[in-house]
Amino acid sequence: MTTLTSPHDLLVAVPFLMGFSPQESLIVIGIRDEAINIAMRFDLERADLNEISTHLKRWKSECAMIIAYTDHGEGKSLNDEVTESISRAGILVRESLLVEGRRWRSTLCSDLTCCPVEGNPMPDISNSTIAAEQVLLGHPMPFESREELQNSLRSDGSLQSITDEVSLAIELIAEIDYRHDPRPFQREGAEAISRVIALAQAGESVRDATLLALVLVRLKDLQVRDFALGSINEENLEILIDLWRWIVRIAPSRYVAPVATLLAATSYEKGDGVLAQSALDRALESDDEYPLAHLLKRVFAAGWPPETFATMRRELHPKISSAIFDEVA
Predict the structure, then answer these.
(1) Is 70 exceeded by the pLDDT of residue 295?
(2) 185 within 8 A of 194, measured Cβ to Cβ
(3) How far separated are the first and last CA of the chain, in Å rounded?
(4) What's the sign of the alpha-carbon dihedral 143, 147, 151, 157?
(5) In this model, does residue 29 exceed pLDDT 90?
(6) pLDDT digits (tens, 9 = 90+) for 242-270
(7) Would residue 1 count as lying in a domain?
(8) How many other C-beta atoms lie within 10 A of the C-beta of residue 181?
(9) Burial status of residue 137 (CB atoms within 10 A of its CB: 0-12, 13-18, 19 or more)
(10) In this structure, are 136 and 175 located in the same domain?
(11) N or C: where does the chain have the smaller number of CB atoms within 10 Å of the terminal CB?
């Protein structure tokens, strides 16, 4: 993302970082080596000062920027509290902005010529350099609200045809009978996942209902799901986010949870915590007892850096692949 050189840049960048335009929200951005390394969002009434400082330290942020969005005039005191808490943790607060409705001001600036009491008009996102850069990189314009972002992970009328095709194809696929050796079915699932990833990497649309159905059915198996989790790497993060997001949208409800957790894990590793949380919400909406979704929820809340998550995944993948593909003598 373009270097953030002014409050205007920061205010334009936040919706792209979040994926939507925040409302009644506290945004805290961590900076390390002059680059954004973590962006967090909290509901205003639920912001935990200790959690914020802990996450910034765990991610080794050198400084932070704070933006509170509110229509109720309650943000400044929270900005001051967060600034003080982060400063006590030994992290420099570079900027603290208060957005009230369609106007903003810096709570750190006392110069009324640049930060008048009534605030400055919000910048026009659509005409900004940052927006142009993000669109050229293939990133969509931010959603208007978090609800719109969450709805983007659900099917709509335009996808009903492919969802119906996948549902019919699922009926023809045998479930794994664990009273017998499951590995032939697990191999079939792992190979199907490798095929859809290869298609996505080649820039081809993945609309083969039979292949999609096979992926969804076999992802119910933990070994196959973990094989898919281990297929993430630094080169295919963006591609896999788009792939899992597409499959989440066309999946019948009872098959959503595994692929939604894959989307959550991939998004988190890329640093998109808001999409990761939205994907977890989608998984738990489909299956409120899905164990991996609850585990990832705890991991995200603890603020694990993506590098730690990626290291664990890289160490696990060879073992999973061996268990699926190696023959027993």
Answers:
(1) yes
(2) no
(3) 52
(4) negative
(5) yes
(6) 999 999 999 999 999 999 999 999 998 88
(7) no
(8) 11
(9) exposed
(10) no
(11) C
In this model, does residue 75 exceed pLDDT 80?
no
Total Cβ atoms within 10 A of residue 303: 17
Q: What is the distance between the alpha carbons of residues 85 and 62, in angstroms, rounded to a whole number? A: 15
Number of domains into which the chain is organized: 2
Contacts of 27 by beta carbon, 8 Å cutoff, 6+ apart: 14, 17, 18, 39, 40, 41, 66, 67, 68, 69
Same domain, 212 and 124: no
- 0.90 cut: is pTM over it? no
238 within a domain of the structure (yes/no): yes
Q: Which domain holds residue 115?
A: 7-145
Statement to judge: residues 192 and 302 lie in one domain: yes
Domain CATH for 130? 3.40.140
CB burial string 240-273: b at 16+ within 10 A, e below = bbebbbbbbbbbeeebbbbbbbbbbbbbbbbbbb
Question: Given a cut of 50, is residue 309 above it in pLDDT?
Answer: yes
Q: What is the mean pLDDT of the chain?
A: 89
Domain for residue 80, yes or no? yes
Give the model confidence (pLDDT) of 194-238 as tens digits. Answer: 999 999 999 998 999 999 999 999 999 999 999 999 998 888 988
Residue 122, Cα to own-chain centre: how many angstroms? 26
Same domain, 197 and 136: no
Asked whether residue 2 is domain-assigned, the answer is: no
Q: Which of 117, 145, 173 is the last residue of a domain?
A: 145
Which of 202, 231, 199, 221 is closest to 212 using CA atoms? Answer: 199
Determine the Cα angle at 238 with ends 280 and 285, to 5°: 15
> Rounded to the nearest 5 degrees, what angle is found at the Cα of 122, between the Cα atoms of 78 and 141?
100
Which residues 6+ apart lie within 8 Å of 299 measured at CB? 268, 309
Q: Are residues 193 and 227 in the same domain?
A: yes
Residues ≥6 apart with Cβ < 8 Å to 57: 89, 91
Q: Under DSSP, is residue 278 helix (H, G, I), strand (E, B) or coil?
A: helix
